[in-house]
Amino acid sequence: MVTNDNYFDTKTQLEYFGASQFKTFLGCEAKGLAEICGFYDSKPTKAMLMGSYVDAYFSGTIEEFKMLHPEIFKKNGEPLKDYEKCDRIIERAEADPLFHEYISGEQQRIMTGEIFGHPFKIKIDSYFPGEKMVDLKVMKDLEPVYKDGERKSFIDAWGYDIQGYIYQQVEKCNSGKELPFYLAVITKEEEPDMEIIHIPQWRLNSAGEVIKHYVDRFAEVKRGEAEPVRCGKCGYCRSTKMLKAPIEYEDFIGLE
Predict the structure, then answer these.
(1) Nearest CA among 65, 59, 54 for reference residue 137
(2) Total-model pTM
(3) Which structural domains are found in the chain, ordered by start?
(4) 116 vs 6, 17, 88, CA distance in Å?
């Protein structure tokens, strides 16, 4: 049984896929496997910690978060200057009735289920049984981002459609219903912006095709039946890179 205590254990991570894990494998199989096995630890960035701070407040686990990350708090429990903005974000979120409504469901609901024959686990930020699922996102802003040489919405760039499909299908395994998936997005700007975004079913289904295409392959990598492919660009690949020989100038700058 997957619980809060074992959600990120190596055994659980090897047995189950999760949205974050699957997206990591999409970017780099080698990094995904190394993180599961404890060979590589992606240190949380300031941006990630800010998002976790806000998540912890609304999930009622802020005291536990403070114990896990004492480095971002003063002795009196107040956040350091770089993280004071988190309290302003929280105040803004609570001041908007609709936003607050959407993030006030059952907090951090854990579920497991199968997608395309493979076990997945999820932890829903705000769950409304029989009605909807909502994931809280704390973003830099609401503008499109450049990723992989393309201008994309932050939803597509960071794979939140993939997350939505996984959440929806795992929940469906438990309830038999296909619930709508929403993002409750609030920004880190000086004056935080916010939106409640519904990801339509056609977009979730499109993301599902990506999962269907890759999940068997990723499962083989996790079982040790296939060699993980290195992306050559991520932190893990850079930290484990071993030079074999000099390269030619033309190869380095991409000339034929």
Answers:
(1) 54
(2) 0.93
(3) 10-43+96-253 (3.90.320.10)
(4) 24, 12, 42
DSSP string across 156-215: HHTTHHHHHHHHHHHHHHHHS----EEEEEEE-SSS--EEEEEEPHHHHHHHHHHHHHHH
The tens-digit pLDDT sequence of the chain (256 residues) is 999 999 999 999 999 999 999 999 999 999 999 999 999 987 788 888 999 999 999 998 888 898 889 888 888 888 888 788 899 999 999 999 999 999 999 999 999 999 999 999 999 999 999 999 999 999 999 999 988 888 999 999 999 999 999 999 999 999 999 999 999 999 999 999 999 999 999 999 999 999 999 999 999 999 999 999 999 999 999 999 999 999 999 888 876 5
